[in-house]
Amino acid sequence: MKNGLRFAVLGAGHGGYAMAADLSLAGYEVNLFNRSPKPIEAIRKRGGIEITGEAVYGEGFAKVKATTDMGEAIGDVDIIMITVPAFGHEFMIDKSIPHLKDEQIIVFNTGNFASLRLGHKLRKIGKKNVLAETSILIYSSRITGPTSVFVDGLKRKLPIAAFPSKKTKEVLEVLGNVYPQLIAATNVLETSLENLNPIFHPAITLLNAGLTERTMGNYVFYKDGVGPGVGRTIQAVDDERTGVAKELGLRVTSTTEWLYLMYGAKGNNIYEAIQNCKPYLDEGERGPKDFHFRFVTEDVPYGLVPIASLGDLLGVHTPNIKAIIQLWSTINQTDYFKEGYTAKKLGLSGLTEQEIIKLATEGSL
Amino acid sequence: MKNGLRFAVLGAGHGGYAMAADLSLAGYEVNLFNRSPKPIEAIRKRGGIEITGEAVYGEGFAKVKATTDMGEAIGDVDIIMITVPAFGHEFMIDKSIPHLKDEQIIVFNTGNFASLRLGHKLRKIGKKNVLAETSILIYSSRITGPTSVFVDGLKRKLPIAAFPSKKTKEVLEVLGNVYPQLIAATNVLETSLENLNPIFHPAITLLNAGLTERTMGNYVFYKDGVGPGVGRTIQAVDDERTGVAKELGLRVTSTTEWLYLMYGAKGNNIYEAIQNCKPYLDEGERGPKDFHFRFVTEDVPYGLVPIASLGDLLGVHTPNIKAIIQLWSTINQTDYFKEGYTAKKLGLSGLTEQEIIKLATEGSL
ipTM score here? Predict the structure, then answer.
């Protein structure tokens, strides 16, 4: 069966390049779709991508078919991997709809509540696809040339859930052969709530907004941007996230646990743990160039807003998350409370905790 | 009458030094009170303060009697000038009570809602003093030695109001001779709402929290700390303040108007105006060393909290102010919503707009 699987990877960003190449080296047929032709022109001409670094299936030249035609990209595949940021999820689904076949599995590589939001939409028009999502992208990678990508890290354990979650086992039977790192999450609420990007990025960027504007992000994001007070803010945001998860019967990894597990960090609090994380230090990621960057435009509306809105629904207070959403709304002159994935947009308004859990498990009430 | 007036200045900080010396050069008797003896020991020994710079009454050595004995400080005076930050107001009033005479006028030099808060307290125990407050301290000054102070600026126009405001004329008849800069404000809500420190300081410090922690404030506060997005945040906070004032029938100076008037600044928004303010640029004030600084510990509980709480009472939304209070509460592990001057602590809860205005004018309902 292995060599029989065909994949479409939607989105030719850092993650899409890595995933398309790696899946190809694993022996699968891979189509790489991108909305605009320019980023994939060279791949189309050369017929593939050179992958180096620590991917699952090694290094080398990987045959990949690049296309801007969605029908061509997904028409014959078994699995559709979406690797664009959350603000591109709906576009990809809308564009896919005319070509979707019911047996195709769609995987959001970083859930950001897309399964609930777009599953609802697909259901409405009679599509029966199993959706699935991971809590984060498996690859940490960067494009190093028009047809080359370097993978500098791979998640060791990666939660995945199908929507509805009674199909998770089914999805894992197929995808677990491809990515042995995948483990079953309880449901798509858990995968979405496991994502720590919304916990780190909007708070750190906000509390360094003046510096970001003045230096265009020319500082070491975690090392320079996180002092003890910034750490306390991240902790408060994290407590609100884990509080919402707990109310839904989910036990998600806390930020400090994650820092300990992922990086062997030490320290009594988030600030200390971050200052002890080697990848965060001098060679670490720079700050965002401006505020129209994923750290805000993805992590606020698709990360923090659903947590706050779920909190309201469940009676869990999220004052720090709301404060951060409010200030980003002001700074970016965008009402993220309205634009973001609210519980209503997730199809959850008016539901009880039990009903939400049932919906996540069964796909309907 | 002029030479007959006797003053007590409570608080030997930068402002207290300048005010005590300047009033003395104007020909008045001045006692300078300080809680702890050390800061005023040298003044006590030398018998006065050397004042230089641009004070109202010139430069020179000014005779000032320094004391840590509140009875001695205020026992015989006509006017009690309080020059400590807002978090010291209540201490000064409590310490004064046993020695207060009904005819003495108490002036909070930077109101921060102290008249309403502490007027209420004095009334309760039968004290009939007229309280008054300015929107900000008249002097911009710094202590340059144990017995010397330099005044680098003076407010050209300074609103003052008595509590109750029907007494403002009376207060101005006395104090207007001393400070010709004083003009009558509508009431103490106006003077307190005219103060722009709570509009600038907590927002800028918050949006530079990471930088502040890393550099211990070693950046030029306004120039380095304010980019376009930070400017939009200040504007939003300012709009909420002017909205609350408007609901109370008050028209307070907007932040941009103030930048234009005070510094001849130009620009289409707060960011541009600040970047065109000479005193804010390279030689300007540095950031706070840490977060237990007046920019937070005074301006949040005594500046932003009363505005937010008044907004709640009046039905005026203040989401940005509340977001800033929330995040400072988290960072400083202090519930400023609770610790600050709420409408309840100001004796206003349950009152209508008309009743609030009547209370400010008449001193009772």
Answer: 0.94
